[in-house]
């Protein structure tokens, strides 16, 4: 009896590893720290600003292997997760979803028509918005940078850091910033390679 109990407990431990990510009814991977909003972009930018954070939209789709990688390998990494949670308000979008979205120009769309309007075709696509909502225009026009796809930990984290530090305003291209951060990490004895 004790052997069976131990076997069941060990199976449960392997079935749901620590930091396991859940999948919602929409088929998207979920993080309990992502924000649930009414998807009014101007209001979301303002709400993020009130929290001294930046708004980030993450477009995903059901069955996306790169989205799974992002959730299971990057967003569960304590260094990455804690940095993003402290500095960004993240709202998840379903590239083929039907929830209503209000663009910065006031147009009401569904998630899928917003993705088409803004030109997002890859998942995940991570969209970084400015600190202040601009008058009119679209999310695609207002975005300070858009990151299509999932990358390695260093590239992923450095993009969030570059946006938080407003690298897009300093003239230091992200690739130069990333190379500098990797070199600084190597000099400090870190094993950063991507």
TrEMBL record:
The keyword Metal-binding belongs to this UniProt entry's keyword annotation: no
UniProt signal peptide: 1-20
Keywords: Signal
Entry-linked InterPro entries: SoxW (IPR041737), Thioredoxin-like_fold (IPR012336), Thioredoxin-like_sf (IPR036249)
CDD domains attached to this UniProt entry: SoxW (cd02951)
Pfam families the UniProt entry points to: Thioredoxin_2
Gene3D superfamilies named among the record's database cross-references: Glutaredoxin
Domain Thioredoxin-like fold: 49-132
The protein's name in its UniProt record: Thioredoxin family protein
